[in-house]
Give the backbone structure.
Amino acid sequence: MGKVILITGISSGFGRESAALLAKCGHTVYGTARTQCAVNEGVNLLIMDLTDRESIRNAVRSVAEREGRIDVLVNNAGMHTGGPVETAPEDHIRAQMETSFLGMVFLTREVLPVMRSGGGGLIINISSIGGLMGLPFQGFYSAAKFAVEGFSEALRMEVRSFNIKVVVINPGDFRTNSSANRRKFLATTGTEDPYAGQFEKSLSVIERDEAVGNDPVVLAKKLAGIIDCRNPRQRYIIASADQKLAVFLKRIMPGKLFAGILASHYGIPHAWQK
């Protein structure tokens, strides 16, 4: 039997591919975007802005009134800022947290009563490898994803008695439009910025990794499998072998040693290199 699925951020990337595949699988799919965009066959577009509470309420109400239930919520939408913690513009910081964390929180709060009245449901929160380790010059992106991690852990325990499951997905690098979108929210580091040179070096590594990442279809297929699974795991890390290894190493290595390895990857000199 097909499920009623609400997925955010379907204008491109993970969201677009996932919404299309889920519709092909026979589910009733409602996808959100901030503005009008082309959608695949079988996907119902909802205009919703995660920074606008009324917009969130209207979107959830629309699905609940038309379908009578919401079986699955996929919190996919977000944004990706880049820049030094010290000099990143304040409006970028606020936009990152309000979109990638607070928007997800308020949408989840609107969906929970619908799921409870329907006897249960599944909430899938798209985090990141950056939610398991702080990434240099992506500090506020990582902060938002770390917040998603803690929120999901707490929520999972609170809603268990209502037959609502909470799953976290941690993608690694994928060939999406992250690089292009981040370019709209980069800190402007002129010659007077003490971080300018290192930021540009690290940004080139970040964008190189994204350019050779997996196809978003890989994540879409995994997402479809999770939704069909009767007892899904609490976490799925969907990343390259190297990135999965990094997650494992962070878990077992002394913090200073792992930080040195990660810094080296991003071209940042560490203590042993000086």
